[in-house]
Design a protein that fits this description.
By secondary structure, this protein is of the alpha/beta class. About 30% of the residues lie in helices and about 25% in strands. It has a 5-stranded mixed beta sheet with strand order 5-7-6-8-9, sandwiched between helices. A 4-stranded antiparallel beta sheet has the order 1-2-3-4. Strand 2 and strand 3 form a beta hairpin.
Length: about 200
């Protein structure tokens, strides 16, 4: 896991957050390619989802894929240390780790990756119902966690992220307390402040 840890540290993720995920068996390093593997489990603790992220980048892009047979409704989720009424939702696994790092490793809420979001292109007419479909991961999570009362939305502050935020807010508002916590800067991604914080040290 040393290679993965060095990569995640470079992305600004703290050792504390990495260790916490490893201890819950939801993060490990693959062999022989050293991909970071983010694991999603069902309510019985069985692994049902895996997202692989390469640690080497070419032209600013790295290897990313969902493992064949993965069920997105059981996406990567960092559990809290104790009972909670809040779940935070992110576009990607790395965002969950980054936000937890920015919050100094707080373990007071569930941190759920949606495994990506679906949104139409900006300034285009919406023709597909798939863009209005609620995230499978969040729907399954809420079904299995009736104690949840608050949904904190932490998507990126770009068109797609804002679109997804509005769709979730529109549907869940009234049943849940909705907290919108997008990056302040237009076009901002949640993991970037974490990377900048690391660079400033």
């Amino acid at each position: 896991m040393q290679t993965n840890q060095a990569y995640l540290n470079h992305r600004g993720i703290s050792d504390e957050v990495i260790t916490y995920c490893i201890s819950h068996e939801i993060l490990y390093e693959s062999v022989p390619y050293h991909n970071a593997v983010f694991v999603g489990k069902d309510e019985s603790g069985k692994a049902r989802y895996a997202f692989l992220r390469g640690i080497y980048e070419k032209n600013g892009k790295g290897f990313k894929m969902e493992q064949t047979g993965s069920e997105k409704k059981y996406s990567f989720c960092i559990p809290p240390e104790r009972e909670t009424k809040r779940v935070v939702v992110y576009e990607a696994c790395i965002d969950a780790l980054a936000h937890m790092t920015l919050e100094e490793g707080k373990r007071d809420k569930y941190r759920l990756s949606l495994g990506g979001i679906a949104a139409p292109k900006e300034n285009t007419q919406i023709q597909s119902e798939r863009f209005k479909k609620l995230p499978d991961a969040l729907e399954e999570f809420l079904k299995n966690h009736p104690e949840i009362k608050e949904i904190e939305i932490c998507t990126d502050n770009d068109f797609a992220g804002r679109w997804a935020k509005e769709q979730m807010k529109k549907h869940y508002e009234g049943t849940y307390q909705i907290i919108c916590n997008l990056p302040e800067k237009e076009g901002g991604r949640l993991c970037r402040p974490c990377e900048r914080k690391k660079a400033d040290k």
